[in-house]
Amino acid sequence: MLVLRLFGTAGIRKKYPEELNPILAYKLGLAVSTIKEWNKAYIVYDTRTTSHLFTYSFASGLMAGGVNCYFIGLAPTPIAGYAAKKYRGLGVSVTASHNPPEYNGYKFYDNEGYEFTRILEKEIEEKINKQLSPVDWSRVGTSYWSESIIDEYISDLVNYVNRPNKKWEPIIVIDLANGAAYKVSPEVMRKLGAKPLTINADPNGYFPIRAPEPRKDVLEKYLDLYASVNPPVILAHDGDADRLAVLDPVKGFIRQDRIIAFYAYLLLSQRRGRVIVSIDTGRVIDDIVEKMGGKIERYVLGKTHERLKQVGASNTVLAAEPWKLIDPSWGPWVDGVLQVALITKTVIEHGKPFSKILDEIGIPDYPWDRRSYKISPVEKRDKIYNEFIEELKHLLGEPINVITIDGYRFEYSDYSWILARKSGTEPKIRLYMEAPTNERLREMIELSEKKLVEIVKKNNAIIIEKTIG
Amino acid sequence: MLVLRLFGTAGIRKKYPEELNPILAYKLGLAVSTIKEWNKAYIVYDTRTTSHLFTYSFASGLMAGGVNCYFIGLAPTPIAGYAAKKYRGLGVSVTASHNPPEYNGYKFYDNEGYEFTRILEKEIEEKINKQLSPVDWSRVGTSYWSESIIDEYISDLVNYVNRPNKKWEPIIVIDLANGAAYKVSPEVMRKLGAKPLTINADPNGYFPIRAPEPRKDVLEKYLDLYASVNPPVILAHDGDADRLAVLDPVKGFIRQDRIIAFYAYLLLSQRRGRVIVSIDTGRVIDDIVEKMGGKIERYVLGKTHERLKQVGASNTVLAAEPWKLIDPSWGPWVDGVLQVALITKTVIEHGKPFSKILDEIGIPDYPWDRRSYKISPVEKRDKIYNEFIEELKHLLGEPINVITIDGYRFEYSDYSWILARKSGTEPKIRLYMEAPTNERLREMIELSEKKLVEIVKKNNAIIIEKTIG
Amino acid sequence: MLVLRLFGTAGIRKKYPEELNPILAYKLGLAVSTIKEWNKAYIVYDTRTTSHLFTYSFASGLMAGGVNCYFIGLAPTPIAGYAAKKYRGLGVSVTASHNPPEYNGYKFYDNEGYEFTRILEKEIEEKINKQLSPVDWSRVGTSYWSESIIDEYISDLVNYVNRPNKKWEPIIVIDLANGAAYKVSPEVMRKLGAKPLTINADPNGYFPIRAPEPRKDVLEKYLDLYASVNPPVILAHDGDADRLAVLDPVKGFIRQDRIIAFYAYLLLSQRRGRVIVSIDTGRVIDDIVEKMGGKIERYVLGKTHERLKQVGASNTVLAAEPWKLIDPSWGPWVDGVLQVALITKTVIEHGKPFSKILDEIGIPDYPWDRRSYKISPVEKRDKIYNEFIEELKHLLGEPINVITIDGYRFEYSDYSWILARKSGTEPKIRLYMEAPTNERLREMIELSEKKLVEIVKKNNAIIIEKTIG
Amino acid sequence: MLVLRLFGTAGIRKKYPEELNPILAYKLGLAVSTIKEWNKAYIVYDTRTTSHLFTYSFASGLMAGGVNCYFIGLAPTPIAGYAAKKYRGLGVSVTASHNPPEYNGYKFYDNEGYEFTRILEKEIEEKINKQLSPVDWSRVGTSYWSESIIDEYISDLVNYVNRPNKKWEPIIVIDLANGAAYKVSPEVMRKLGAKPLTINADPNGYFPIRAPEPRKDVLEKYLDLYASVNPPVILAHDGDADRLAVLDPVKGFIRQDRIIAFYAYLLLSQRRGRVIVSIDTGRVIDDIVEKMGGKIERYVLGKTHERLKQVGASNTVLAAEPWKLIDPSWGPWVDGVLQVALITKTVIEHGKPFSKILDEIGIPDYPWDRRSYKISPVEKRDKIYNEFIEELKHLLGEPINVITIDGYRFEYSDYSWILARKSGTEPKIRLYMEAPTNERLREMIELSEKKLVEIVKKNNAIIIEKTIG
User: Fold this and answer.
1) What percentage of chain D carries pLDDT values higher than 90?
2) Which of C102, C83, C103, C101 has the alpha carbon at shortest distance from C93?
């Protein structure tokens, strides 16, 4: 039986109404209700125009499956994970994360606060295609409101991170992406001692100014605006605030690998243990983890939470991917508001710009590149990829380490590395590279691109699109 | 194209989940959203276990059609009509009225407070079968809460009816049917000066004690209970409180025709004009209307509100059907809470039991009968009915008046009458009779039943079920 | 300094507006805010007309003291204790319990769920008289809604008590006193398998039918009503549902000592340990506790929760006073809804009337008497009481045990006993007596009353009022 | 009897807790409840930390006075006026407008939507000092939530202003002052076709970045930030959004007189009639009103709404003061969100920067000056002022018109004018001047200041502070 793939890298994100409509949302809710003996679900939603539509239609499915729904209201995705764990229920965030405004979707958390694993996702996808029966009228669920959980989250988070002793009250700029953290993140910043200057804080599902994805190009467009008050750091959420981007008023976007390295530094200062990062992250994290006496492990992109669940939160210090941070001592969900708290606290404690702090800690900025090639015809992509991997094994030198958990990552003795992956959603081959010097990086780019072009041609295919960055 | 008939005599009432499920509810909402340029909908629901399920799934349809939903919450159906008129929007009550707990459904009110006409209902039924397109993501509706409308309704109603001058504070028993008026009707009674003793006032969609239909047999089962405090009158709602039944502690259930006659008396005391009643109502109403100088008109059962809309609320004093009252000066919706207010006020003002008041006003209780015959095979019902009508034209005497708007009603010079109708939902022939004496009534019953049995036999059919009362 | 005594036997209950007004409520809130480092308060209120008034004015005091208020809404008092313990905050119930409608007041719970001790109460009384300073504007508290806690309470309670296996679905009558449990107790009954027939379930702070105090005389007035459906048991709450009274359809009010004995039987069947009861309870409890291998201890009336706190919940099986039950395994607050659950379950499991179950368990009904004498002039009461106690020491025989923790309780070898106490709120002397036979009881009454009259006369005082029962 | 003056120019604004505390707020609520036969009050609050504190304590006073409170929630002050008129009740905004964060206060609207007159304010001030009695327990008010009114306001306002036909979607910058319009004003802008780029839109009662008063100096500090995206206009609210300031990205703050002249132009284009402006406004408004065929009238500062009430809304086109606009066709309350709507629509329709539109309409920018002199000792201020006025009568030429309704305003034939007023709250003399040329203005300043200094000296007093602008 052909099963429709609903879930992507992080939850479901689909276009309204072509790909996701209230009927599918209802079926999805009904399917999720059967996954486990949930008594109750804690539901947040973001600012999208369709948020009530998809909250209530999905909740109808849960109720039809006998689950009581507790609506927390407009709130960041991390609060769904937080509530699921603290109150031992299902956590649901109605959000399309950083997708354009015509999208919406869902992220789910089990009653320990873990995002659903791929196994659970598959179970749901299969169930949706079947004719699921709602429960008898006498066991149908109902709903309640529970906004106080937002206050409990803020209070618990501020207690967890701890207010810095310093009295410096810097203006820190934060761009809320017209999203769900519009009130929560500034309040956390204020409680930790900073003065938040907010941009795009009005909840607005039209995202009139910037795309909710906190990419370098999206954010640097407004660098003049952000920098005009010369803040020690600039923060920017995506729409549902599971993610955070960080900018320097002068240098602009700070590469995500360096941010992860910073968290590794911070958390390993407190306790030793494992650091799980996604396969596409760079050498700078290894540098810091090694220096701090931790142990680094790379895992499938978008699935570091699954690895965390496998190995356990107790001996893992950190699980991270670009833009995404899990601090297992706080909870096993990706939490962008926690990032806001950690950076705000650090800046106040050090009393200086964040990029200066990164330099002082010794978090280097290695040359890197990231590009993708769209192949046509579609069906030739896999063959080309396989041939390319075969060539890559020796193309850039002899690797001292190869990781194959998600694509092929070849690591060389000079600390340079290349990762080749197939995209899961498009007919693309993606390359990620890093090197100690610009020269080496240029060499890696030229050799690999030349080889790929060669193989494409040999296969009578063409590259119809090339994206850099 | 075959169009599914969704609507019955009063709105939609269907069994969950076989006949009505959240997907159909969503489609229904979407269809309703297209009927008119609604900006907003005012939504109440009753106590059924599926009330949140069917509120939210239906609201998803409205929102998908671009309508903003204002949730009033758990409240009697009349408040949907009231809000629709007062705030000029769509009114929606999520209720299956007095049906068993496994049912749910909808009643709709246009922005003047009129229940939807059959024409609108047909339009909706047709639209549901088509593939309706939801509006663009940028125009999708959202939702708000608006519980204060319940308070406004109570306040406006008490002002409308006016607190009696008398100081008597009788205990009046009211059975709330575990339904939506659990708080509203007792509060209205109290504000008018009575002490409500409530039975089954806990909101409870399982209806553990009595069926929500306020029938004679359902209610008289608890007459001992109701009568134990010897109240001047006993009131009983259906589940959504558009209806009211009235009992005397000694004589039990008071026939609905007499209650309608009482309202006619009350309202015609204040102003003259037309009285619209359904085809199945009795002579006692004519008596009173004539005495009070009004003008009576009989109309299709379940559709008196349509007639009211046609002729206009300004020169109509009353529109009523058994259990259902519309007072056009208050608003064009059926309102059981208004009935509670009128009877409470009257009892306090007169300072005596309600049945005594009826006697003093001079509202007689004529002998009557009501019975139905289920015919098999189904397809023969219509032919039998037609032949029976043909015979009936002269069977019980020469009628001085024949009304054919809904079945055939033959009226005789001694004020006796018979109405023969086909049921709209079952293969039944229904007979309603009234006479000035028990003898004449017995004669009418015997002759008509004998004739019907004869015709059934002649057609090689059988009566598989006969119901009296 | 003279300190106004605000607190009575159970929390604060004062007349509006003479004794308790919003200004005092505000000061009270401010005082309570300083008692402990509360982060947050969970607040329920009952159905009184002044409930919003006293919720919001009191909450203003808490907020002025920096505490965030989580409003649960209209809910039974036990939910304040439950929320306080489960979510580790202050618990507040805005209620005057079973006092007349013009009263209102407060019950407080610490973050373990214990009602405030007398020491805390005194601290509050002293603080109110001082000029307490509100916190700085920047640390003032705010408020949130959190109705879902009601659902969690119901769900946790039903899980705790456990649905009986039996399939019997008896109609059980419950009189809700127009109070806060209007929805909660019937829902618990239904979830355990009974069909609740509710009387006075509409939330109505005017208490139009019966006083909210669940006394014998108040309830037996409606015994005909309650008994008309011949239920296996009749239950009746006070206004805030921390209390429960139990009636038999034939025999009427069941003495509270027997109900406590029943709970002792039930809970000692599950585990051994201490049973704490108030000083005014009778021999039947000793009988059962001894039979079941428990250990009984008598304590000050209205303060058994304090004794429980001293000795610890872990080795105490039960703490109870007439109408009031604490099951420490469930939580240290007095819980009338828990009583509803335990009795409902027992009746269903045994499949027979509750009074029959009491008989089968072997819970006897000893002859008893309770009376009080109001002395004038007021200031002579204490001297008369002291002289009376001196005489009582040998008057009715030689006691084998004397308990002096709250008045004087003399216990005799034939298991008869007498308790003499001074009222805390009125110039009264109260006597409680129990005996194995009616003869012995009559003797005790005559001898003690004669002696008291004698002493009163000797002191040139008079008895201006005598109350029996 | 000395009566505490609570009300200032616009409602009550006091420091917490020294000047305004919950006890006073309660008394105030009780006093307001007695002013008129209010059935109900519609209550909004702004983002201050004490907003819940002062909403609930004030509402306690209203409820104690028998008024039912409908909480709309966090919303701009204009919505209090709007709800009061539309739903015929009392309107209340809990706000200290643009005062610093440690302040809070109230604005009141009668059931036609007019802000309370000084006469009503005095009545309240007197009543607070008396011992007001709360109503009997049985008539105490209660409360409800009614957030949907926010949506109705937005919808009605957008319909009133009307979406422009043009398709230009400019980015317009709006600074929300961390205040109550955080969501409403951007939504109105979006619905009219603009893209709002919001600054300080997070609701935050600490006002971390800018003072809530939208003064030139406060706002121009952030001109770089606002101007960085080169918007056609920059808008800035105060904390409760009854006010609006307007900036040009290049020229900065646009003088309020020109903004008022623009509204006069706009509204007089639609219909003729009276224009009421405060005494301190300039010649540019006369220019436009004359050109457009209207009739201008100057009135007491802070009291133009009283004048509007006297003359009636039907033949008045506009009532305005610096930062404050009343459009009587929309409603008689000061409405900053309406200003947002009118300017947004105009900019889109003209497709060019707002300051260019002002130029094209022909709204000149005359030289002006505004200064104040603080006199010591305090008690000499009045004498000095009187002597100064005497001199001023001929000092700057022979006036062709003198207005004495609020201070003395002398108007000259060259269209220059001077206004001298005593401050109502401080021992200050205030001068406002305008002239057709810079030379004339300089002359007016020199002559008047010289004369004032002379009189001060003659009276043995000194000027302890001089403020310009």
Assistant:
1) 92
2) C83
